[in-house]
Design a protein that fits this description.
single chain, 8 helices, 5 strands, Rossmann fold, about 220 residues
């Protein structure tokens, strides 16, 4: 069995890769260089795929900076910093990239059908404080119908399924799952800044650090602050 894994290099997508391997799939990873502020994550994606023994690693390149719309694709928009979890939960943050998962899933679908894969794994999480609209169950359900209707494979009754093993897990539960699966946290990258060392103050860093702290564990990444 074959599966395409959307691998950003972060905590969630790395856990999803290791889960897909545990599920018995021959995994093919796909990562995206869309000129994001934190392109450093691509180094982690490749390192994690290699560590997991993935032979087929795809990197798709395109540029979303040309229309911006997000703090991750427009340097003129400041990244939120030093926010607590309550602040993060109040609204969809400026780190939301318009339609990003729709773009990613479209590429993954084309790749999956080309190699006759049975499914696509994505590390979306509906309980994350970011509350991105394209990480929610109703969105995934809608995209599953797109997968069925928009492909030859789907129209012939062999629709490619979307697997979301983390969608209803808390960040602490994701870390616990990753520990069981042997995810190399030291190779992962969550920081939204584009520096060599994680900033420790952006929303993504704070969510990650809070989860490790709640479990009484030390995050193996180095942080600037």
């Amino acid at each position: 069995m074959k599966a395409v894994i959307l691998l950003s290099g972060g905590l969630d997508s790395s856990t999803v890769l290791y889960q897909a391997i545990a599920d018995g799939y021959n995994c093919h990873t796909i990562s995206f260089d869309y000129q994001q502020r934190h392109r450093r994550e691509l180094d982690s994606a490749l390192a994690i795929a290699q560590k997991a023994g993935v032979v087929d690693q795809q990197v798709v390149k395109f540029d979303l900076r040309q229309w911006g719309g997000s703090a991750l694709t427009d340097d003129a928009i400041e990244l939120p910093q030093k926010r607590d979890l309550e602040e993060m939960s109040q609204s969809i943050p400026v780190t939301y990239v318009p339609a990003r998962n729709t773009i990613f899933l479209s590429f993954a679908l084309a790749y999956a059908e080309t190699i006759s894969a049975q499914c696509v794994y994505i590390g979306v999480n509906a309980l994350d404080y970011s509350g991105y609209p394209d990480c929610r169950p109703d969105y995934i359900q809608a995209m599953q119908e797109v997968f069925r209707l928009g492909t030859k494979q789907g129209r012939e009754g062999q629709s490619i399924s979307i697997k979301t093993p983390l969608i209803q897990l808390k960040k602490t539960e994701i870390i616990q799952l990753g520990n069981k699966l042997g995810v190399p946290w030291e190779l992962t990258w969550s920081c939204y800044q584009g520096d060599d060392v994680a900033c420790g103050v952006c929303d993504s860093c704070r969510l990650r650090l809070a989860a490790f702290g709640e479990l009484g564990l030390k995050d193996p990444l180095a942080y600037a602050k």
